[in-house]
Amino acid sequence: MRTLLFIAAGLLLLGLLLLFSRPHWRGRAALGFIVVWLLVSAVNLSQGLRAGYALGEELLVHLFLFGIPALAGLWAWRQQRLPRQ
User: Fold this and answer.
1) How high is the pLDDT of residue 82?
2) Average pLDDT value for residue range 10-21
3) Among the four residues 3, 42, 64, 72, which has the most C-beta atoms within 10 Å?
4) Which one, of 35, 57, 38, lies nearest residue 48 by Cα?
């Protein structure tokens, strides 16, 4: 359940960032989100390791925790780079 909440929080943060950024800055906002989300995920990883979870377990979970919102951010960045028709 915590994993789903973390992923949902990332997607919500990305959505809010894109919603409130100016249209010509949305591509950079999406890339900036990926950097910030990587830092948030790294802090969460260190908290899990400190709580006693094995690195192998944490890396597998964080593949999804970071990957799903980051892929959404890459998709948003790519949408801003594609020419409008």
Assistant:
1) 73
2) 96
3) 72
4) 57
Task: Measure CA of the first residue to CA of the last residue in the chain; give whole Å.
Answer: 41
> Three-state secondary structure along 10-79?
HHHHHHHHHHHCCHHHHHHHHHHHHHHHHHHHHHHHHHHHHCCCCHHHHHHHHHHHHHHHHHHHHHHHHH
Q: How many domains does the chain have?
A: 1
Q: Express each pLDDT in 20-78 by its tens digit.
A: 999 889 999 999 999 999 999 999 999 999 999 999 999 999 999 999 999 999 999 99
Q: Is the pTM of this model over 0.85?
A: yes
Residue located via tokens 């789903």: 4
Asked if residue 44 lies in contact with residue 6, where contact means CB atoms within 8 angstroms, the answer is: yes
Alpha carbon 44 to chain centroid, angstroms: 12
* CB-based contacts of 9, cutoff 8 Å, min separation 6: none
